[in-house]
Design a protein that fits this description.
- The structure holds 2 protein chains of 2 kinds.
- Chain A is mainly alpha-helical.
- Chain A has 10 helices and no strands.
- In chain A, helix 5 packs across helix 6 and helix 7 crosses helix 8.
- Helices cover about 15% and strands about 30% of the residues of chain B.
- The chains are: A mainly alpha, B alpha+beta.
C-alpha cells in the first residue's frame, strides 16, 4: 500500500509509480513473495482477468489515494445509488402506485411494516444525500480541473448523471401521494411547461393528462422504478469505464 | 478481384450508396418508432373533470358571495353587476389560490390577487383567468373553461 509520507517506497513496490517503463514489464521484480506473480505484466493480467479483482484498478496513483483530493465523493454517490436501489426494490414489495392506495401504503411502511420506517427513511435520506453528493462531486471535478482533456466526454456523461439524479429525485417526490407531493409535482411540471416550443406537450405527456392524477402517479412510478434507474445504470457503467480508460483519476493541479 | 479499371462504367449502385440507403431506412424506422411511441404515450381519453360544466341555478348563489367550486378549481363570483367565473389556478406555477377578505392569496409562493383577479404582489405574471359563463336553455349557469374572456365580462341575470 502506498504511504504518502514514504517516497522511497515508490521505487520498490509494484504499483506505486505511475506508468512503469515498458522494459520493466517482463522483468522479475525485487522483493517478490513466493507464489505471487513476479512481474508487473503477470500481476496486471491477474487483476484484469478476474471479475471481482478487475473492479479495482491495476495501478492507483499515489495522490489518488489522498482523501483530500476526491473526498470520496464519486464513490459515495455510487454507494448511495446502490443503497437506493436495494431499499427501493424492498419498498416496492409494499407500495401500490394507485391513488386509493399509495398514501396508505406509505403510512403502513412508516407504522406497521417491520423495519418499514428504517427502509423508507434510508431511501429518503440517501436520495437527499445523493443529490448533494453528486453536486459536490461535480464541484470537486471542476475545481481539480478533472474535466479537461482527455476527460471531456466523462464530464458530459457526469452532467447527464446529475440530470438523471435530479429526475429520479423529482419522480420519487410524487410517490408518497401526500399534499407535499401533489403540490410539488403541480409546481414542478408547470416549470417544465416553460420549456420553449414543446413545454405544454411535455407536461401533458409527463402527467398523462392536464392535472396531477392517477395517470401521473403511474407514469412517475414507472419512470422512477424502471426507465430512469436503467438509464442511470447504463450511464454509470460508461462513466466508470471512461474513468479507467482516461488513466484513472486526474492528477493534482 | 474485380476492382474497376478507370475506363469501366461506374456501377449505378455503389456500395457507399447501398449502405447509405440502408442507413437512411434504419434511421427512418427508428424515427418513426419514436414518433409512434410518443403518440402511444398521449392518452386519447382522460378521466378528468369536464372543461365545460353546469353550475346549477343562479339563485343558488347570493349577491356579494364568492363560491369555490373545488372540483373545477373555479370561483363563482356574484356581485351587483352579475356573475363572473374566476379561475382558482395561480398563473405563476398552478397552485390553487385561497379567497381572503382582500381578494385571493396563493399559498405556494405568496402571490396576491385583488377580488377582480388582478395581481397585487408576488411572482404571478398574469391576472387570474376569467372564464366565459352563460345560461343554458333551462336557465342553469354554464361555465366554459376553454374560453377565456376579459375581466369586464359579466353575466347579467
Amino acid at each position: 500500500m502506498a504511504r504518502p509520507s514514504d517516497e522511497s517506497d515508490a521505487t520498490k513496490g509494484s504499483g506505486s509509480t505511475c506508468g512503469p517503463a515498458p522494459e520493466r514489464l517482463g522483468r522479475p521484480l525485487p522483493g517478490g513473495l513466493p507464489g505471487y506473480p513476479d512481474t508487473d505484466l503477470k500481476r496486471s493480467t491477474l487483476i484484469t482477468g478476474n471479475l471481482l479483482l478487475h473492479l479495482h484498478p491495476v495501478k492507483v496513483r499515489r495522490h489518488a489515494l489522498k482523501f483530500g483530493y476526491t473526498f470520496c465523493l464519486g464513490g459515495t454517490a455510487f454507494l448511495l445509488s446502490l443503497v437506493l436501489t436495494v431499499t427501493g426494490v424492498i419498498l416496492m414489495f409494499y407500495y401500490h402506485p394507485s391513488v386509493p392506495k399509495a398514501y396508505y401504503d406509505m403510512e403502513d411502511l412508516e407504522f406497521i411494516v417491520n423495519f418499514g420506517l428504517l427502509l423508507r427513511n434510508l431511501h429518503r435520506w440517501s436520495a437527499h444525500g445523493m443529490v448533494a453528493v453528486v453536486f459536490l462531486h461535480m464541484c470537486r471535478v471542476f475545481y481539480t480541473g478533472a474535466y479537461k482533456p482527455p476527460r471531456e466526454l466523462n464530464w458530459v456523461v457526469g452532467a447527464a448523471l446529475l440530470g438523471l439524479t435530479l429526475m429520479l429525485s423529482f419522480t420519487g417526490y410524487l410517490l408518497p401521494w401526500d399534499q407535499l407531493a401533489f403540490w410539488a409535482i403541480t409546481v414542478g411540471t408547470n416549470i417544465a411547461k416553460a420549456v420553449p416550443l414543446v413545454g405544454p406537450q411535455l407536461r401533458f405527456l409527463l402527467l398523462g393528462g392536464n392535472l396531477v392524477g392517477p395517470n401521473a402517479l403511474l407514469r412517475f412510478y414507472v419512470l422512477h422504478c424502471v426507465v430512469l434507474p436503467l438509464t442511470l445504470g447504463a450511464l454509470m457503467a460508461l462513466h466508470f469505464w471512461k474513468v479507467r480508460k482516461d488513466g484513472g483519476l486526474s492528477g493534482p493541479l | 478481384m474485380n476492382s474497376p479499371s478507370p475506363e469501366a462504367p461506374k456501377p449505378s449502385l455503389t456500395r457507399r450508396l447501398f449502405l447509405g440507403f440502408n442507413l437512411t431506412g434504419i434511421g427512418a424506422l427508428f424515427a418513426g418508432t419514436f414518433v409512434q411511441t410518443v403518440r402511444y404515450l398521449k392518452p386519447n381519453v382522460l378521466f378528468e373533470p369536464e372543461p365545460v360544466f353546469k353550475a346549477g341555478a343562479p339563485d343558488k348563489y347570493f349577491e356579494g358571495t364568492v363560491t369555490f367550486l373545488a372540483k373545477r378549481s373555479v370561483f363563482l363570483v356574484r356581485d351587483a353587476k352579475g356573475f363572473r367565473a374566476l379561475s382558482a389556478i395561480c398563473t405563476h406555477l398552478g397552485c390553487t389560490v385561497k379567497p381572503t377578505p382582500g381578494g385571493f392569496d396563493c399559498p405556494c409562493h405568496g402571490s396576491k390577487f385583488d377580488p377582480q383577479g388582478e395581481v397585487q404582489s408576488g411572482p404571478a405574471p398574469k391576472p387570474l383567468a376569467c372564464f366565459e359563463i352563460r345560461l343554458t336553455d333551462s336557465g342553469e349557469l354554464l361555465v366554459d373553461t376553454t374560453r377565456i374572456v376579459g375581466k369586464d365580462f359579466v353575466l347579467k341575470v
